[in-house]
Amino acid sequence: MEQIRAIVTGATGMVGEGVLHECLKSEKVEKVLVVGRRSCGVSHPKLTKIIQKDFFDLSAIENDLKGWNACFFCLGMSSVGVSEDEYKRLTYDLTMNFAETLAKENTEMTFCYVSGSGTDSGEKSRLAWARVKGKTENDLMKLSFKRAFAFRIGFLKPEKDFKNTLKPYKYFGWLYPLIRGVSNKYASTLSEVGKAMINCAAEGYEKQVLEVEDIIKLSKK
Fold it and tell me: Which end of the chain, N or C, is surrounded by fewer C-beta atoms within 10 Å?
């Protein structure tokens, strides 16, 4: 099995922090490049960091983005209080610009995109975020990557020692065992998301769109 050389974005967010943590622990991952607008505050022998303020102009770091075989794209934002045009620019346009830059030089790359449960692949939902996420998923899968996957995460178990837990989880994290106890369709751990992405890069998966149940299943391989 080829060792994974992974680019991680969004490492200063809840999901990205969890994915980075799993990458640094995993024997399947040889090295990691974090690209972010500010430092993730983590040091590790496998880890290289690039501060990139403008994700719409990657010309200064294009050479640094060559030679990687996985990207775990965890950068994202809430649609609350944001116009649809602005949400599309910072979700679809930003993601596609980064992915297109990677695809030009890394045709053997597996691209894993953090999407969300409820995303609309048909791009016709009355919810703007669901349409935008659906279009992002669809268009990522048209690029010249070896493989591209959408990870539709649901409710996540917060980790008490992590720095970037979203505020709502600090108050409602206690719901996790109740939700997980009902079904594997709605909730997973950050560890499961990270392990599933690593296993997806290493071995692939039978579906390109992974729901929560798929994430849990793939994390155990």
Answer: N
pLDDT digits (tens, 9 = 90+) for 113-155: 999 999 999 999 999 999 999 999 999 999 999 999 999 999 9
Q: Around 86, how many Cα atoms within 13 Å sit in the side-chain half-sphere?
A: 7
Rounded Cα distance between 101 and 18, Å, is 25
In the structure, what pLDDT confidence band is assigned to residue 158 with cuts at 50, 70 and 90? Answer: confident
- Return d(Cα 66, Cα 81) in angstroms, integer: 36
Helix axes 190-203, 212-219, angle to 10 degrees: 70
The C-alpha R_g of the chain, in whole angstroms, comes to 16
Q: Which residues are registered as beta bridge partners of 194?
A: none
Q: Is the pTM of this model over 0.90?
A: yes
Q: Is the pLDDT of residue 1 over 70?
A: no
The strand ranges marked E within the chain are 4-9, 29-36, 47-51, 70-73, 110-116, 147-153, 155-157, 187-189, 209-210
CA distance 6 to 192: 17
**CB atoms inside a 10 Å sphere around CB 189:** 18
Mean pLDDT of the chain, nearest integer? 96
pLDDT mean over 38-48: 96
No. of helices (H) and no. of strands (E), the chain? 8, 9
3-state secondary structure of 216: helix
Angle at 15 between CA 99 and CA 7, to 5 degrees: 35
